[in-house]
Every structure is written in structure tokens, then in C-alpha cells.
Input
Amino acid sequence: MGKFFTMNSKWINWIIFIGLSIIWGSSFLLMKIGMKEGLIQLSPYQVASLRMISSGIVLLPFAFKAFKQIPKDKMGLVILSGVLGNFIPAYLFCIAETKIDSALAGILNSLTPLFTILVGIAFFKLDSNGKKITGILLGLVGLVISVVAGKTLHFENFSYSFFVVIATIFYGINVNMVGRYMHTISAINIASMAFSFSIIPSAIILYSTGYFSYDFSNYDLIQASLAGSVLGVINTSLASILFYILVKRAGILFASTVTYAIPFVSLTMGLFYNEPIHPFRIVGLAIILVGVYIVNKRSVSKED
Output
């Protein structure tokens, strides 16, 4: 009976893993839709602000309860988690996608597990071993192949890819923070407090960009705004709750490797936006999957 519940628990972890991959993998295309050229084109700051405001509003009802339940000495860490793990990366990704395609952004996002390990070892005393690092490095080999394939990474746009890299560093810090210091706080409390805190600064940024002076009867504006709002409600609020749950259930390394599966979804979604798939990107992603298997197999078996 005990073995049955253990297996059932693993299946739940994988269901959450797959769900997160689909939700987060579609985020990059939604950013593109939000900033697409039309009669009115939203800026990256406007799309990111809409994303953070909508996510905060959805979780605001839970924030009042969270404020009472979160230990006072942990409140600062929870808010910092929201800033590093969501607020800043939201803007960095949108800025990056003004010059790189959504599929490439999804692939670069796979750097998160590497920075999770490096940050964990350097600052959080994270235990690791050669096999886990080998799996991560193998995944990065596939990542490099995927990035250099095709014609998407022009020299003039190369610097914008580093906005995604910086975002993944923040993700790595946040994953370690949640796993190390917030394991006793419920996922909904972490997410609701972190995102509710971002409403005011995001609203200030949105207002300063002149967003509220637009003609809201314009179809392009409605579509772009809707894309930004969906990013907040589904791809940020719901996904973040699921991610916090996965970190607690399966551990830091297993949760962080969800970013390996995201490129497959972002590549598929990119087809709907006429982003071509280079064959070598598929080869690169196949290599990434091997690295994912090595890391996941070892991290899961250790927790049995």
C-alpha cells in the first residue's frame, strides 16, 4: 500500500510538471502577441505591467489571509521572491522578445536549472554530485546547438538574449530561496502575497507609459491587452502556485528542470506565429531531454 501511494505521488509530480511546461511554454508566444505590430503596438513595459497587475488582482483575495498567516520574519523573503522570481523577469523577457523570437526565448529559458545549481552551491549549500551536473551540462550542450541553429540569432540582436539569461539567474535564486527558507509556507500564500505586492509598482509603470490614453475600442489594443492579462492570470498566477507546490513535493532540482520541457512547447506555439523550426533545434532539444532524464532520475531516486 505504501508503495502504491509513493507511485501515485510521483505521477502527481509529473502531471504538475507537464502542466507547467504547457502553460509556461505558451507564455513566450503570448508576449509576442501582446507586442505585435498593429494600429496600436504595446511596449514590453506595458505587456509586462498588464501581466503583473492581472496576476496580482487574481490573487489579491488570498493575500489578506496570507498576510496574517505568513510569519513576520518571512514576509520580506516572500516579497523578495516575487520581485526576483516574477516581477523583474516579466520585464526582462518582454524586452528580449522585441528582438528575438519566442521559440529562442523559450530555449534560453532552459538555463534556469544550471543557475539553480550554481547559485545553490555558491550561496545555499546545495548538495550535488557529478551525475547531476553531467545531466545539466549535457542539457546545455543541446541548448547551445538549438540556439546557434537557424538564422534567429543575428549579431545585432545577440545582446537582447542576455536579458533572458539575467532572468534565468533570478529564477535560480528564487528557486533556492523557496526551497530553503519558505518550505513551511503554503504555495498560495507565497504567490498571493508576492504578486499582490507587485500591483502598485506595475500600475505606476503602466500609467507612466501612457497606456490609459489609448483608444480602448481598438481591436488590436484589446487583443494585445487580453494577451497580457492571460499571461498574468494563467501563465503567472496559476503557474506560480503549481511551481511552488512542485518545489515542495519533488525538490528544487526536479522543479527547476521543468524549464527543459518548455522549449518544445514554445517551438510548437511558434509555428502559429510563423516562426520556422530549424532541424538542428530538434536535435539540440533531443540532447536536452537526455540531460533532463539523467537529472530527474537521480533526484527522484534519492528522494524514494
Notes: The radius of gyration is 19 Å. Residues 19-303 form one domain.
